[in-house]
């Protein structure tokens, strides 16, 4: 239902949720502790000899790191022990950030290299920010961060789903605060005329385009806002041309024929228009509220006690990035001088094999190690159904540019992040897609399965 | 290379002739007039750390230009460097490249190669090219590293690199001597093979290592000796002219003879194949920036991984020919994968994150270009025409019932 059609732009509406909030659990204290990260060149595991961790080593190295990395334009805090509040999420909201326990997962280690977790609350001024989308996944977390930072945030959506909803683990107070502040501009972004008129009437300093797919969708936004300070775009690492040499760096060749060519064309358009743009290329995003069945696909099978069918060898390497880390990155680039007209890969610090991911999901959720069945996808006809949620190839990108230029680092390692997703979403009985084991059954029933 | 006694207290060896040499009973170096304890120039570098952190580029520029602003603080500071070098194996070439690079930058370099100058091992590269080191002003000597003190006499060094030992018994005498002799910076070539395998890649500095790996004890020992500056470097596989151990040649051998290339498993295994100049540039940066380097582990590799399949394709491209891959399961065929294939049959993939952050290092390995150069050399020395036996290949192909001639 389009709003403001033909007339003046519809005024943003302050929306309060009509739905009752889902049950909120008081999370145990362990879950409130953020994961521990140090700059150690040796991993931290208490009680083990220096090569496998040790506070002395990590302190010395942290100090050396601080000395060594001091001078990018983002200040780096030497961190000798984990800070009590690691992310921008206030402690109550960080309930849904807490990753560590409820499953036998050690919150381990993490960063290498640049520390740079200082969250620069970008510029002292409050910005008038528009988020295209913002009610499903990335935007849900991003909008909260921006509101918390004091910006005026408007979400542009059709209003098909509630503009705001309370998140699992989010306190009533935090939710009330957020939902009372965030604004809604109701409209269909495919209605370019409306987009142009309504945005021009409102005027925004910054636009986050989280759900754009085609270049044409961006034009009315740019036309409407000639004084736009920054256009921040959610692109995709799917634009990279497949390569035998990995990881992908931002300078790598892109594939003009990929499924994501719309993203590529949008990036080119932005660059051609002279606007101050920033493009973020995530890999596979995961975390609570994921509507893409990434981790959910594994969780369904683990819960059902089913084997996990994985195509071919299972050694294909992929990469997951937690949505909260992605949201932090989106905030980091706001007003960041080094983000101007730059592309950044944003994802997890390490990569994982398909087999490894299945095991990590089990570990994170407290399931026993799964039975994995490998199969040759060429021997099956699944019709239109997807038998596996990842592209059957190596696919991963280096995040080093973002860590150096922006001082951003991911907070979640894989198992911690999967635990966070499980504890706040699937583990509470919520998910987006019903389990569908039809392709699994095709694979498992056939006697021709590769054993390994 | 003139034959010379390995004892350096005898007549001067021609392998040490250089313009710097003065008439002396010591063939390669006379004792430094600067006492080690007052060698203050070394320590003053530490305070002046460059204020700009350069973003390592993605250029494929050669190693010489890999020196970044980091070396500004240390420019002009010439070091006396001793490289204790293995006499065989994949790592032998590292010392050769580093020596060349350091000599080119004006440092004084001595290479102590294990064993005897007259040994058969010296008939292989890079040793066959040691005259290049000498003509660049370097010194080459031979002997048992356990006797390093005697071999170098009273010579003083600022930096010692052990590119030889894999275990404590071999490195300890060198490290102990260096410590006692007041060496400021001790560097050790370890191995990325000591990382514990994991489902998550890559190996990153700080990841757990196999406690029983012999290099691990060495790394720990070096750390505990508390040199002013110490660092360990963990390499993987290298290509480059002067290499002592075949790497890409294994692929060229088959491709150029139109033989199928047998690949274990899926061929999707990732590995690091670096040009050795990436390693020498990283080591040289550490020499130039001892404070930044100190206390660090550095994965000594390029910053891209390649799959086995990818490497075959790149080698074939370099050779200007097609390659045919056959996949096999080593267990099923009954061959030892270690003997049948030059790389570990698994993901074996480390990233050089510490070097980029702490040294401002950037990789210059460009496999398509580098392999072309390697292939050209392979042909120029006639290896493509050489008679070779591929017994293990034959066994594999036989078991797969694949015709040997394409």
TrEMBL record, chain A:
<dbReference type="Pfam" id="PF01370">
    <property type="entry name" value="Epimerase"/>
</dbReference>
<dbReference type="GO" id="GO:0005829">
    <property type="term" value="C:cytosol"/>
</dbReference>
<dbReference type="GO" id="GO:0005996">
    <property type="term" value="P:monosaccharide metabolic process"/>
</dbReference>
<dbReference type="InterPro" id="IPR001509">
    <property type="entry name" value="Epimerase_deHydtase"/>
</dbReference>
<feature type="region of interest" description="Disordered">
    <location>
        <begin position="1"/>
        <end position="21"/>
    </location>
</feature>
<dbReference type="InterPro" id="IPR036291">
    <property type="entry name" value="NAD(P)-bd_dom_sf"/>
</dbReference>
<protein>
    <recommendedName>
        <fullName>NAD-dependent epimerase/dehydratase domain-containing protein</fullName>
    </recommendedName>
</protein>
<dbReference type="GO" id="GO:0003978">
    <property type="term" value="F:UDP-glucose 4-epimerase activity"/>
</dbReference>
<feature type="domain" description="NAD-dependent epimerase/dehydratase">
    <location>
        <begin position="129"/>
        <end position="346"/>
    </location>
</feature>
Automatic annotation (TrEMBL), chain B:
<dbReference type="GO" id="GO:0003978">
    <property type="term" value="F:UDP-glucose 4-epimerase activity"/>
</dbReference>
<dbReference type="InterPro" id="IPR001509">
    <property type="entry name" value="Epimerase_deHydtase"/>
</dbReference>
<dbReference type="Pfam" id="PF01370">
    <property type="entry name" value="Epimerase"/>
</dbReference>
<dbReference type="InterPro" id="IPR036291">
    <property type="entry name" value="NAD(P)-bd_dom_sf"/>
</dbReference>
<dbReference type="GO" id="GO:0005996">
    <property type="term" value="P:monosaccharide metabolic process"/>
</dbReference>
<protein>
    <recommendedName>
        <fullName>NAD-dependent epimerase/dehydratase domain-containing protein</fullName>
    </recommendedName>
</protein>
<feature type="domain" description="NAD-dependent epimerase/dehydratase">
    <location>
        <begin position="89"/>
        <end position="300"/>
    </location>
</feature>
<dbReference type="GO" id="GO:0005829">
    <property type="term" value="C:cytosol"/>
</dbReference>
């Amino acid at each position: 239902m389009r709003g403001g059609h033909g007339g003046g732009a519809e005024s943003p509406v302050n929306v309060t949720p009509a739905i009752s909030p889902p049950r909120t659990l008081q999370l145990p204290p362990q879950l409130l502790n953020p994961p521990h990260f140090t700059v150690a060149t040796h991993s931290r595991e208490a009680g083990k000899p220096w090569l496998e961790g040790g506070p002395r080593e990590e302190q010395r190295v942290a100090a050396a790191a601080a000395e060594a990395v001091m001078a990018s334009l983002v200040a780096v805090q030497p961190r000798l022990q984990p800070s009590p509040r690691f992310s921008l999420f206030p402690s109550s909201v960080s309930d849904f950030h807490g990753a560590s326990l409820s499953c036998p997962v050690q919150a381990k280690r993490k960063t290498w290299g640049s520390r740079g977790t200082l969250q620069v609350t970008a510029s002292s001024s409050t910005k008038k920010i528009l988020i295209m989308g913002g009610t499903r996944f990335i935007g849900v977390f991003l909008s909260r961060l921006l509101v918390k930072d004091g910006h005026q945030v408007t979400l542009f959506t059709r209003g098909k789903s509630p503009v705001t909803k309370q998140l699992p683990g989010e306190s009533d107070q935090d939710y009330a605060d957020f939902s009372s502040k965030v604004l809604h501009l109701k409209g269909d972004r495919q209605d370019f005329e409306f987009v142009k008129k309504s945005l021009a009437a409102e005027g925004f300093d910054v636009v986050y385009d989280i759900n754009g797919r085609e270049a044409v969708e961006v034009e009315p936004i740019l036309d409407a806002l000639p004084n736009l300070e920054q256009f921040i775009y959610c692109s995709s690492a799917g634009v990279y041309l497949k390569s035998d040499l990995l990881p992908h760096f931002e300078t790598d060749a892109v594939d003009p024929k990929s499924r994501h060519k719309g993203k590529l064309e949008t990036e080119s358009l932005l660059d051609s228009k002279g606007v101050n743009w920033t493009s973020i290329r995530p890999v596979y995003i995961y975390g609570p509220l994921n509507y893409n069945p990434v981790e959910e696909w594994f969780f369904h099978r683990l819960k059902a006690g089913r084997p996990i069918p994985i195509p071919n060898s299972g050694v294909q390497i992929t990469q997951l990035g937690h949505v909260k880390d992605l949201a932090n990155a989106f905030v980091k680039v706001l007003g960041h001088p080094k983000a101007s007209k730059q592309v950044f890969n944003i994802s997890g610090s390490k990569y994982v094999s398909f087999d490894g991911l299945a095991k990590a999901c089990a570990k994170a959720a407290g399931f026993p190690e799964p039975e994995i069945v490998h199969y040759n996808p060429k021997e099956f006809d699944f019709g239109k159904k997807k038998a596996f949620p990842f592209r059957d190839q190596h696919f991963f990108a280096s995040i080093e540019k973002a860590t150096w230029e922006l001082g951003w680092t991911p907070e979640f390692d894989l198992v911690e992040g999967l635990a966070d997703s499980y504890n706040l979403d699937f583990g509470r009985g919520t998910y987006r897609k019903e389990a569908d084991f039809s392709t699994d059954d095709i694979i498992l029933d056939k006697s021709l399965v590769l054993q390994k | 290379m003139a034959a010379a006694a390995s004892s350096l207290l005898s007549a001067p060896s021609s392998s040490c002739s250089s313009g710097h040499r003065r008439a002396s009973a010591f063939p390669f170096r006379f004792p430094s007039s600067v006492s080690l304890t007052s060698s203050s120039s070394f320590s003053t570098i530490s305070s002046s750390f460059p204020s700009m952190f350069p973003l390592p580029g993605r250029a494929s520029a050669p190693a010489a230009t890999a020196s970044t602003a980091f070396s500004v603080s240390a420019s002009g500071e010439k070091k006396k460097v001793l490289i204790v070098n293995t006499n065989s194996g994949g790592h032998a070439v590292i010392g050769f490249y580093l020596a060349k690079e350091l000599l080119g930058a004006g440092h004084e370099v001595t290479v102590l190669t294990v064993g005897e100058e007259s040994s058969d091992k010296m008939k292989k590269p890079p040793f066959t090219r040691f005259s290049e080191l000498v003509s660049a002003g370097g010194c080459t000597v031979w002997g048992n590293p356990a006797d390093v003190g005697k071999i170098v006499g009273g010579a003083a060094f600022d930096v010692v690199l052990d590119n030889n030992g894999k275990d404590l018994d071999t490195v300890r005498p060198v490290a102990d001597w260096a410590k006692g002799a007041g060496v400021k910076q001790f560097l050790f070539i370890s191995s990325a093979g000591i990382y514990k395998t994991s489902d998550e890649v890559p190996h990153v500095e700080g990841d757990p290592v196999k406690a029983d790996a012999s290099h691990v004890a060495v790394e720990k020992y070096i750390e505990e000796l508390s040199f002013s500056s110490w660092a360990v470097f963990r390499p993987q596989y290298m290509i480059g002219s002067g290499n002592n151990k075949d790497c890409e040649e294994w692929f060229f051998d088959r491709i150029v003879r139109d033989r199928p290339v047998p690949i274990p498993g899926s061929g999707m295994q990732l590995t690091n194949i670096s040009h050795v100049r990436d390693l020498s540039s990283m080591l040289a940066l550490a020499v130039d920036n001892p404070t930044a380097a100190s206390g660090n582990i550095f994965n000594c590799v390029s910053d891209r991984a390649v799959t086995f399949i990818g490497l075959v394709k790149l080698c074939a491209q370099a050779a200007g020919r097609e390659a045919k891959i056959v996949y096999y399961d080593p267990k099923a065929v009954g061959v030892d994968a270690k003997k049948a294939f030059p790389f570990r049959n698994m993901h074996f993939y480390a990233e050089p994150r510490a070097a980029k952050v702490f040294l401002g290092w950037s990789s210059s390995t460009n496999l398509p270009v580098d392999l072309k150069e390697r292939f050209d050399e392979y042909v120029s020395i006639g290896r493509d025409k050489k008679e070779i036996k591929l017994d293990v290949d034959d066994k594999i192909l036989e078991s797969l019932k694949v015709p040997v001639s394409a």
